[in-house]
Amino acid sequence: MHEAGHGDIVGSPEALIWDYLTEFQQKAICYSDIMQFIVARREPSVLEYHQAQLEQRLPAARDSATNSDDAAQAWVNLEKIRYLLQALMGETDPKAWMAGIEPLLKFGLGSSQARKKQPSCSDMAFIASQRIIQAAFLAYSAADQREQLHSALFKALCVLESGIQLNDNSFLLKLYAIRVYLYLSCYERAQTIYDTLRIKHVQLDTLGHLIIGHGMALGCFALDMELCYNGVTFYDRFQSKMPRDIEAVYQQGTYSNVQDFLEFQSNIVHSVQRECTHRYALRGEGYEYGNAKETLARWEEADVSSIEHSEQTLSALHDNRDVSVMGLLTPKDMAQWDLELLTQSTPIPGHDFIRAFSLVPQVMHYLVCADIESLQEKLSELTLVVDNTNDTLSRQDVLFVRGIIDVGSLYIQASDPQNEIDDQLSRLLSVIRTNLPSNELDPSLFSLSSDGIRNLSAAAELFTYMLALKHALSAQRLPAANAVGLALSQLRKEALKSVNTLRGWVDKNTRALVEEQWLAENDDDIFADVKRFVVGGQKQTTSMVTKACTTSWLRSVKNLLSQWEKCSS
Fold first, then answer.
1. How far apart are CA 70 and CA 25, in angstroms?
2. pLDDT tens per residue, range 300-317
3. Is residue 101 a contact partner of residue 132, using CB atoms and an 8 Å limit?
4. Residue 291 burial (CB < 10 Å; 0-12/13-18/19+)?
5. What is the mean pLDDT of the chain?
6. Residue 227 phi, psi (nearest 5)
7. Considering only CA atoms, which of 441, 355, 451, 437 is closest in space to residue 394?
8. Residue in 119, 23, 125, 106 with CA at minimum distance from that of residue 72
9. Rounded Cα distance, 428 and 487, in Å
10. SS3 of 318, please?
11. Which pLDDT tens digit goes with each residue over 440-499?
């Protein structure tokens, strides 16, 4: 009505927002109710008005927060508005985001209300963690500052885990912890937290993307495969139950719901996450090591026709995934303040992922079956996908897919005994060697927690497919089989040595390095207040997070070492 010229009747929209807040500030849903109205009018004068109103109320709300649950919730809602206004006003100073963090931490994690599991305390711990993460990405956005970024995110993990220890029912704290652990390449702890969420049935379609596939990227194929099979089982059972469910709708006489029910069924059956889960399951099966006979049989018998996709079938897929599960306090159109986007360790898989990992099994099938014409066709399609991904695939997925293209091209070259394969084979082996741990340089905590494990996992996966190439060449009695076999044997020896050295380094050094580097004081440490709080008052939790990170890294490296050992047998 105000926009239509009836401001004299309804009054100022901004004043109405604060009148509403005064009336309902003790309700947890209050912020969600008014956020959209604050976001709708972002003119500087309007934001300044909101800022003035906030500054009038915030000190009193903070001082009275311990009086009652309602008073605490009122403070929480004002802190959420403070966060939103900083983003809307374009605040990029990390120190401004960290201003006033200590009272949030003390109330959310160190107060008597927190020990009583008061919901407002979990909310405050959640807001504090968001501020730390936001400040970290603003302070250390440059490529050469990512080591400092990881240090800050580790402190955020300590805050998140402290909140979880106090209130194990906090869904949002757990979601954030999962995201940050995966960002730091700590799969095992992330998967453990995910299990406590007890996500099942339809939630596998909406929230499964939070964890499915990340294990494969971090060397934990077995754990990831179990999640994939759970997802595949859900989708298969859901589809098989459709006739009975539709019959039940008619028997109950709820005919008006039939159309909605059919639409819901179709969305699940033609779900993007369903296709991604199936592709991850296929990917995991391809990674499993077997002898020559088992490997060739697996690819020869693969049902490649059922996984083919066209632009038409891809466009018919429905994306049911909840990609805003991070409890954002800012609108989605603000990329620099979008923690959902900033905390993604890899792109969320979509159409390019589905197409690429539908084509990989097809490439291997036609390679093993010596169908060169079909193989060339699929390699061309796969090349087109990976050349036009526009950052929709992770760097390691691109590395792996390009490696598969090279594997297929090498097979075509080797299928004619007159052709030389030395240069092509050397390039392919170089891709794997480049992503193995260096024997000449000591690893670093940053390299391990960023791309180190991911690169090693991609190298091990690509090597497994090269073994299938070698078995195919041998079975088809092609002369190149011997050269490929000798080269792979030498590469296995190098990999075993370097990965075993890395395992020893992780086991011996990472815990001390976390304490020395990620919990160390810096002269200009923006996160000094957080560091003092987690080290001084949350020692047990900080120690637990340190152990969770080091144990997760060690588990990933041990799994990858085991994979190389199996490939050597």
1. 8
2. 998 888 888 888 888 889
3. yes
4. exposed
5. 89
6. -65, -40
7. 451
8. 119
9. 11
10. strand
11. 667 789 999 999 999 999 999 999 999 999 999 999 999 999 999 999 999 999 999 999
Query: Who contacts 366 (Cβ-Cβ below 8 Å, separation ≥6)?
Result: 304, 372, 374, 375, 378
DSSP string, 385-418: HHHT-TT-S-HHHHHHHHHHHHHHHHHHHHTSTT
**Lowest-confidence segment of 84-98, 265-279, 539-553 by average pLDDT:** 265-279
**8 Å CB contact between 129 and 120:** no
List the structure tokens of 279.
């592709």
CA–CA separation, 352 and 330 (whole Å)? 29
The phi and psi torsions of 390 (rounded to 5 degrees) equal 50, 50
The number of residues in the chain equals 569
Are the C-beta atoms of 246 and 258 separated by less than 8 Å?
Answer: yes
Residue 100 Ramachandran class (φ > 0 left, ψ -120 to 50 alpha, else beta): left
Rounded to an integer, what distance in angstroms lies between the CA atom of residue 421 and that of residue 538? 59
User: Is the CB of residue 462 less than 8 Å from the CB of residue 195?
Assistant: no
* pTM for the structure as a whole: 0.92
CB within 8 Å of 330: residues ≥ 6 apart: 83, 84, 87, 88, 337, 338
First to last CA, the chain: 76
Please give the biggest Cα pair distance in the chain. 89
Lookup: tokens for 540? 């047990």
- 271 — phi, psi (to 5°)? -95, 140
Q: How many CA atoms lie within 13 A of 246 on its CB side?
A: 14
Q: Is there a contact between 69 and 124 (Cβ–Cβ < 8 Å)?
A: no
